[in-house]
Amino acid sequence: MTSKEARAFAPASIGNVAVGFDMLGHSLSGYGDTATVRRTTDGRVRVTAIRGLVTELPRDAKANTAGRALLGLAKLRPGVGFEVELDKGIPLGSGMGGSAASAVAALVAANAVLEKPVSLETLYDLAMDGEAAASGSRHGDNVAPMLLGGLVIAPAKGAPVKVPVPKGLHCALVHPHFVLETRKARAALKGAYELHDFVVQSEGLALLLAGCWTKNVDLIRRGFRDVLVEPRRAKLIPGFQRVKEAALDCGALGSSISGAGPSVFAWFESKAKATRAGAAMAEAFKSVKLEADVLVSKVDGPAAKVI
Question: Helices 240-249 and 271-286, interaxial angle, to 10°?
């Protein structure tokens, strides 16, 4: 017999990873959300508590990322319902996948209390439904790496694909103390794009993925650039160019906006380089009067798990 209650943790993540808008992401150690889910027999989904760094979130299941994801799961198991409590460990509007983490943690916990658990592909599909409650769009670049861990390709349909990365590859992420709402960041992307920019972006994605699979950091460096999204969102983040330059001056393979922002991240060949760069990036934010937190993590970060 399965237990009627389970707790699960979902890590933070970086969406887009510069070259893969809405389809590439990687998980991070250090931050995350926890969900406690109880199985019920009334077929309903209730969000009963929200604690932690963020508490002013919708309690209505349809408007809450965890609640909406669980509503989809409940439809697959007629008669089964869920009560969920959320402990938020990811700052609101930080660009670290906070809305996605709640959905993933809730689904992983709920799946653990089902008599017949659903597949990873189904969890991924339901998690994208949950993500849409907060962002207004259905995309998997945050939920996929949370489910699988590490660097992951997040297709619109079908199972996500984990990408191997060179050993020792680390990420420095710097989170400035202000909120940038995902919907506002997505609104900045409206308008026409040049076909040439899509070609350049596609080349970058191909080079970065080839570099990861072949463990060739020179290819990663060549591909690590964003000519589509970053130019339109950079103006929403005070001091962005200074922070990016600080990362590159410290030997980054590349640097860009984490998800919708305002956090900025960069990849490095070692933890030591990432640690030094994180401090320099935080100092760059101070130059525009913004305090910032620094997180250093392996690019091959953790996956969500029952705890």
Answer: 150
- The answer to whether the Cα torsion of 243, 11, 296, 254 is positive or negative is negative
CB 229 within 8 A of CB 44: no
Topology adopted by domain 164-298: Alpha-Beta Plaits (3.30.70)
Cβ–Cβ under 8 Å, residues 104 and 304? yes
* Residue-level pLDDT at 22: 94
Query: Cβ–Cβ contacts within 10 Å for residue 1, how many?
Result: 4
Least reliable range by pLDDT among 1-10, 23-32, 156-165:
1-10
Residue that the structure tokens 């439904």 belong to: 129
The model carries a pTM of 0.95
For 5-162, which CATH class?
Answer: alpha beta
Cα atoms found within 13 Å of the Cα of residue 81, Cβ hemisphere only: 11
Give the DSSP letter string of 65-110: HHHHHHHHHHHHSTT-EEEEEEEE-S-TTSSS-HHHHHHHHHHHHH
Domain ranges of the chain: 5-162, 164-298
Report the distance separating Cα 60 and Cα 46, nearest Å.
Answer: 7
